[in-house]
Design the sequence.
């Protein structure tokens, strides 16, 4: 099946630094990728929709200047958490769908766990 | 009121039991319904995907959708300890961004 890869899987950083998380579709092209955040024992909350070649669409309450999304190619989207603070510590997960796939066929990455000290 | 409601559990059953997981939703525009399984500290894995009302079976898993009642279910037959995970229902109007339930933690006791 289709594979979505995320890197890094775990990152620890100091407060005030920026962290970049990569999301790659390994065997298909994805015009749209989605970024979710998941706090412990809670469900996934959509942060933003990343569109190849254009600006991301952010959900209400998500700061676009805090969470920078770049979707420069059909196989790569990046999420940069700028000036990270402890409250940004969370599990970040991306998903992508095959361009020719059905609506429901979204594939998720393994997630990236961010810990901000 | 949340758009998607799901009992968080935890749900503990003995090995071999039939498990029933449920979600209700309020947005009648939802058309596509999915069930994901998530192991601890891993990304969600798609188990079942349904579009219309009715049942869909895949091995030990059966997904049921009742659009008139805005209610979906996932049944797991002959449950195994390896089924222990968090099960998330998800749905979409068709624009691909998913709305998730809060997840139900399932523990299958050997």
Sequence:
């Amino acid at each position: 099946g289709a594979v979505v890869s995320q890197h890094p899987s775990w990152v620890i950083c100091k407060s005030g630094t920026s962290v970049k998380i990569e999301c790659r579709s390994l065997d298909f092209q994805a015009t749209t990728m989605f970024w979710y955040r998941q706090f412990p024992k809670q469900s996934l909350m959509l942060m933003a929709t990343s569109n190849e070649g254009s600006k991301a669409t952010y959900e209400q309450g998500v700061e676009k200047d805090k969470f920078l999304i770049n979707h420069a190619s059909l196989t790569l989207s990046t999420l940069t958490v700028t000036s990270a603070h402890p409250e940004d510590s969370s599990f970040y997960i991306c998903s992508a769908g095959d361009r020719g796939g059905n609506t429901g066929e979204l594939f998720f990455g393994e997630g990236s766990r961010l810990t901000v000290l | 009121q949340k758009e998607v409601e799901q009992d968080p559990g935890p749900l503990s059953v003995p090995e071999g039991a039939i498990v029933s997981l449920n979600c209700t939703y309020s947005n009648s525009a939802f058309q596509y319904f999915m069930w994901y399984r998530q192991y601890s500290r891993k990304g969600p894995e798609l188990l079942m995907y349904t579009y219309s009302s009715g049942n869909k079976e895949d091995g030990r898993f059966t997904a049921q959708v009742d659009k008139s009642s805005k209610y979906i279910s996932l049944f797991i037959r002959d449950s195994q300890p390896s089924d222990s995970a968090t099960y998330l229902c998800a749905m979409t109007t068709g624009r691909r961004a998913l709305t998730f339930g809060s997840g139900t933690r399932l523990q299958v006791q050997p």
Observations:
- The radius of gyration of chain B is 13 Å.
- The mean pLDDT of chain B is 91.
- The longest strand of chain B covers residues 85-92.
- The CA atoms of residues 7 and 40 of chain B lie 18 Å apart.
